[in-house]
Every structure is written in C-alpha cells, then in structure tokens.
Amino acid sequence: MSARFLASVTLAATVGLSTAALAEAPAPIQWPCLNPPTMSSAIPGDTVLSDQPSFNCFAWQEFIALNWPAGKSGAPGPASAFGTPGDRSPVVFETYKNVLAFLKPDGSAPGGWNDSLVSAAAIDPAHPYARPMEDRISKFRVHFNGQDIAQAGIPDPAEAWLADKDGNLVWYEVLVNRPEFEYFRTTGYYNSETQSRAMITDRTKKPDPELKIDLPKGSLAGGPGAIELKAAWVTVPLPFGTDWSKTRWSRYKLATGMFCDSFFQGRPTCTYKTLALVGLHILHKTTSQPSWVWASFEHVDNAPSQAEVDAGTVAGDYTFFSRNCRPLSVPAECGAKQKQTSCVPNTPPIYPVTVSGGNVTSKCPPYPIQVTRAFATPDTNENPVVRTNKAAQALIRSANPDSVYQYYKLVNVLWNDSPVDENRGFKPPVAPLSDTAFRPNPNAFPMANTTLETYFQNLTCISCHSHAKIAKSPLNADPIHASDYSFVFQMAGPQPK
Questions:
Q1: 214 and 115 share one domain
Q2: Residue 227 β-bridge partners
Q3: Pairing state of beta strands 254-260 and 131-133?
Q4: Is 90 exceeded by the pLDDT of residue 138?
Q5: How many folded domains does the chain comprise?
Q6: 8 A C-beta contact, residue 459 and residue 446
C-alpha cells in the first residue's frame, strides 16, 4: 500500500469518509492546458494565454457556455440540465439572431433583437420551442434560399448538399450574437450602399474610425465581442412523441425546426421537423485575436477517419458512413452524367436537390453521401485535441451523466500567433486579408468539419474567410474592400430608390 494512499485514508478518516468511498471517487480530470474550462454559462471574452492547448480549452469553454440552457425566465439553467436527452428547450446559441432576420435583400433596417423571422401567430402551440429555419441546405453563398446548395470549394453550388446514410438532408444556418447584431444596426451596414460609402470616404482628410468594417472585439474585462455561428442539423426521420431514450438520437442535441414556405408574412404555411445538431463552427473576434478565433465542433458519431476505413478497423455506428454502402441507380430525369451514385468517401452529389418549406420538391431525392474524416484529429504535445476532448467530456459527465454534449468533440482551433489588426490604419483594407501566422499551419494541418467542409477537407476556415468582401451595391458593383473576415456583410442588399 502506497504512502500516498495511506495519507488519503488518514484524511478520509479525519473528515468522516470511508476508505471504500475514497477508493470509488472518480479520478481527477487531467487537462493538457493551464486554463481548463468549467461548467459555466459565462462566455469568455478573450484569453491571456496564447498557445494551442489554451485555445483548445478556450474553445471548449465557448462550447459549454453557448450550449447552456437558456432558461424560460432569461436566467441560465442549472448545470444538471446541461444536455438533458430529448430536451428541445433553447440553449444560448439558439437565442442568437438568424442573419435572415436583419440582412434583407431590400436593405431595410432591422427590427429589434427579439424580433423573429415569423410572427408569433404563425407558431403552432404544439411546438412551443420551434425555431424558424430557412430552406438552406448550403453553408455558403449570398441570400440563402431554396437553390442555395453549396459547400466550401464546390464549383457548381446546385450540387453540394449533404445527406446522411439514410438519405436525410442536412440543413445549415448562420447566427450572430447581440454585439454583432447591434453593430450592423447602429452602423447601417445592413444596407449595402452604406457599406460602399464608408469604404470610399477620404480618410486622409478626415479620419473617422467609425467608417470601417470593424466588428467589436471581446475582452477579458468586458463583453464577448462579435460571435458568428454556423450550425449543421440533420433531419431526424422519427415522429414527434418518439421515446428518444430508445434510439441513437438520445446522444444528440435535438431541436424542432420550423420551415415556412414564405418568411416575413403574418401566417405562412409551416412544416415542423425534428433536427439533430451534427456540426458547429464558432467564430469569435477578441482583443488578442482581431483575426478571430476559429473553433469547430461535431458529433463523435458523424464519420470514421479515412485511416480507419483503409485499415478495416471501423467500429461503431456512424450517421454519415455505412460499412454496407451500395451504389444506387440515378433517375433519368435528374440529368446526371453518372448512372449510379458513388460510395467513394466525400464525393459531391451528382445532381441538384430543390426544397421548399423544408420539403424536397423535385423528383430527384437526396441520397446517402459516404463521409470520412480525411485528416486525423490531432493528439500531439503541441496540439493535444484528443486529450482535451476526453477531459471536457469527463467534465460534462460530472455535471450530468446523461448529457448529450459528452458525445461532441472539438475538431480543432485556428488562431494567430502574430496577430495584426488590419483595421488600425486610415485606409480600409482590401481583400484578401492576411492568412499568415495562423496556427495550426493551414497548409500543413487542414482544419475541416465533416458536415461543414465535407467535400474539400484540405481547406481551412481562413482559406475562404480571408477573401471576404463587402456587399455589391449600385455604388460599387465589384467591391475590393475586406469585411473583417466575415461573409455576413455580403448578404446586405440596397434600399430601393
């Protein structure tokens, strides 16, 4: 018997604990960082530690806070309610603003923070926690509508949707927190012409720090700054009222999606679907990282690694991968060059799918896409993502042993070890913004989410976002000015004359 255990037994006797209880106590969580996350609803504004393990833990703190129960009264719920299986009540990030609610094709002013995509009268009382969703089966492009079906790097946006191994579609949404929403509202950048005027102002004569595209930064002592979220949700093909505890969906954060055939009307026709969260990008601008912190999470059941497939060691049941994948015949009316679908991993769809009100409207249905992770999740001393995930999942289980969030994992975090604020000069910066000094090195260690960058996993966030520009407008049909790494600005439209 070790001296350490004897010392523990003595301490236990002193405080009235049995040696059996001491022996059964869970081992302390081993964190590979100096700033481990806690079970807290507080969103961190920044971090003083600038190394990969610290940013990994910072990202987990964001994930925990953003998925905290929002609470009916506005007060955050208890840690014991963190990720209760089957619970559809909103978490914090679900209270954020959908970009369609304030960036409109006509460039009109947004309403208030609490305004919804649809009126309260349109919501079915049978679905009290329903969240308005749009027909978006795409992560990218401007003015996301039923024809928006592009993921990163796909040349033909009509052929880049994603479906799970049973053919259930994945839906995407973009949300922003209140500081970012208020920035658009107060600057007038919800109007594309206002963006253009700000960029062409002669600042050498009258420098105006307000005439720039510079989203608010989070700070240690202040607020969180601008946060953008890109979420991926897969359709759950089970009726409402299902006992989720007896299905694999008991491992997922669930929500009720409200799909309407028309937005901004008094009472549109709406369809309700159960959705399961499969991927989440968290983009966060902070004082120490003016080029943003880029974190990505996904469900552990999404897909195996390609290395596991090659080695024949795939174990478990995956949502976007089938060990028994078989090519399917393609309907002639779909106009595809291929006669069969493919089981080659990460192959883009071969024909478009059209949707309206959450339903497929064409005779060309979505089919299963075979997905694998092209690059292994890092687990080195420099970037111990796997160890950080295990520690975070243990922390979540300590608060709620049944929490669905123990089944999510960090993919990676992108940050800059020599950050430069490109908005500090008199002249507004032009695209592309700097993509240097980011860690992990985007060229050596691509960072891809299997549900958000399925088809081009050799890309990383900054590969695209460094090229983000302001919106086109009647004043500037071919803008060159950067939009602070954010594509949200491109969704603004001009006000009609």
A1: yes
A2: 284
A3: parallel
A4: no
A5: 2
A6: yes
